[in-house]
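step=predict obj=MFS transporter n=401
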Amino acid sequence: MSYVSLLRGPHVTRLLVGTLVGRLPSAMAAVAIPLTLRRAGASYAFVGLAVGAFAIAAAVAGPLLGRLVDRVGQPRVLVPAAVLAGCGFLVIAAAPGHQATVLLGAVLAGAATPPLEPCLRALWPDVVEAGKLESAYALDSASQELVFVGGPLVVAGCVAVGSPVEALWAGALLGLAGVAVVATAPPTRAWRAPARVADWLGPLRSRGLVVLLISLTGVGVAIGTLNVVVVSYAEGHRLPGGAPGLLALNALGALVGALLYGAVRRWPIPPPLRALLLATGLTVGYALLCLLPAPPLMACLMLLTGLFLAPVLTVSFVLVGELAPAGTITEAFAWLVTLMTAGTALGSAAVGGVLEWAGPNWAAACGALGLTVGVLVLMVGQAQLVTDRGRDMGERTTSAV
C-alpha cells in the first residue's frame, strides 16, 4: 500500500512528526551530555557514569510510566514527564562542573523521558484501519532511524553556533514541543486503555510476551556489539566516513527494510513464524560480520543487517499488540524499549572486554551469539506466540486462499 495515503490519514502525520521531535532529546543526550561535561573539565570516567545514569533511569522508569499511562491516559503522563525531563537537562546545563548536581539531572532527565514510543504504538490501532496497521508499524520503525540521525545533527548545529550547553536547552525545548503536538491531538486525548485485571505483573503475565521480549534482548545485544565493533574496524581500515559512515549505512538499510516490509499488503506467513524467519536472517547477517571483510563487503553487510533489523522490530510490534493482556498495551511496549536498551548496554559492555582479550573477530561474534540465543527462544516458544486473535486471522487467510 502507499505510504502517502497512510500519511494523509487523519492525525497520522501529526502524531508521527510530534513523536519524532519529542524523542530527539534522548538521541541528543548521548552526545550533548558528554560534550557538556568534557567542556566543564569532567573525566571520562564521570562522563560514562552520567550517561549510564541517564540510560539506566530511562530503562527502569519506562515500564512504570507505561503502566501509569494505561491507568490515567496519555496526556496526564506525557506533559508532566516532558516538563520534568526538560528540568533535568537544564539542571545539567546550569552546573556541569558539580558532579552531584549533574547526576541528579541525568537521573531526572532519564527517568522522566516521555514514553512517546509506546504511546504512539498504542494509538496506531485507533488511528489507522486494520488493514494498514502493519504498514503504520513499519513506518514507525523506519522513522526511528531519523531520530538517531537527527539528534546528533541538532547537537552539532548547537555546538557550531554556541556550545554543548545550548544543545541541552534545545533538547529540553524539543521534548516539550514534541509532547505538546502529540498530547493535544484528538486521538491522544480520547485514548483510554481497556479495563485491566489487577495483577502486579501487568503485561508480563503473558508467557508469549515474555518469550518475545527475551528474544528481543538478543537483538539489543547485537546492536550494542555493532556500535563498538565498527569503531575498532574503522581504526584498522581506511574508509569514507569511518565508523559513523558504517552506522549510517546500517541505518539506511533499516530504513529501506522497514519501507519494503510495510509495502507488502498481506503476508501469507503468520507473525510468529515471520518473526522467527526474519530473526534468523538477521542472525546470518551478523554471523557474516564476524569475518570483518574488506570495506566494500563490510558496507554491504552493514546494509544487509539493517535490512533485516527494521522488519524484525515491525513484526515484534504486531506481536506485542496481540500478546499484551487487556489494559496493558502501553506498558508492554515500554517493556520492549527497556529490554532492547538493556540488551544494547549488555552488548556494549561485554564486547569491550572481548575486543581487548580476543580480538575484533571474536568481539563481532558477540552480536551473532546474542541473536542466536534470541532465535532459539523464538523457536522453542512458537506455540506461546500464537494468540486466539492471531489463530483466527491465520484461519481466515487460509480459507481465503
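step=describe
Residues 216 and 340 are 6 Å apart (CA to CA).
step=end
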